[in-house]
Prior knowledge:
By secondary structure, the chain is α/β, with parallel strands linked by helices.
Amino acid sequence: xxxxMSDRTSLDLPVTYSDIEAAARTIKGAVMNTPAARxxxxxxxxxxxxxxxxxxFQFTASFKERGALNRLSAMTAEERKRGVVAMSAGNHAQGxxxxxxRLGIPSVIFMPVGTPFTKVRNTERLGARVVLxxxxxxxxxxxxxxxxxxxxxxxxxxxxxxxxxxxxxxxAIEFLEAIPDLDILVVPIGGGGLISGxxxxxxxxxxxxxxxGVQTEAYPAMKAALDGRxxxxxxxxxxxxxxxxxxxxxxxxxxxxxxxxxxxxxxSMIEDAIDRLMEIEKVxxxxxxxxxLAAVMQFPxxxxxxxxxxxxxxxxxxxxxxxxxxxxxxxxxxxxxxxxVTTLDLPGALAKVTGVxxxxxxxxxxxxxxRQFATAPVKYTxxxxxxxxxxxxxxxxxxxxxxxEGLDVVDTSGxxxxxx
Length: 420
């Protein structure tokens, strides 16, 4: 991989550092220069010196505003009258809708039919007309292009556009101005607009900085494209913001030239990262936004002792999904357990069990008596309990106390993968 760059001529890249500087001037005052800060707790947890850039504090909770505004600002007065059309399942849609409305530009956003209602509602609330078309982003894209051709609107691509890439690159300028001693940037990749812009800017400012990309197991599209492979993407990922089947042509050229490697992370690690960021940093981050931390947690040997910059690039997550991540995280930590206790079916049996819980300071969340569907002999009963404890050590101590009372105990909560 190339470790240095000076201008577009040397690498024949679609965007120069001067383009990104111009984008920074264009969006200044209309897009937030979001905070960047080191995290002592995440650093201690991972063994790396972790710094975070909080793009979740943008008005639409995503970095996508940067590129969208830069592209919209380049339109002529005549083009603005014609309006814009875009395709997106979420963050790009909201970025385009917000800034198009602010600039007085009519906008139409195409989304797949299955897009969550919250994203549709938010995009409409920001002033766009939403059209649900197709089962996939590719089908929504085709529908958007058809309308654009018919009505002569301007299409705002979510990533494969030099002005979009330049706008996203402003994030790296701000990050390195705030924390100039970073060794590595770890950037999520969907279509590649964010990592392309950030790589061009960061390599110009600090030629020896390393750029690593992150993709999910379900959608490793950029990595496959650079390897010359085709992929059959998985249907579901918690990081839907980077669930892109076909990366950009412009962006893959930049990634091939400037990105050292692309790490593939497990879904469980992204869940963990969402939970850790909420518990430790007290911020809500979507799956794509947590992918960088997931990579550091999954591959700690690559980052140990290094100063690592992570852009928290989006915070638009469904509340139900967030609650599942939190609860599953508590299971992985041993703070929530599901126990099956077998005892003689006699008066006072349940009181005996709950008495142990009380003495050990454990909280019973749910309890079920199983007689008809139990596997134990007919004179016995199975009591299934969901219990809250301080940590796994506390949970183990509770199980030992139950066993000391002569009770048969099985921890049935192990279906959720443990942290690690």
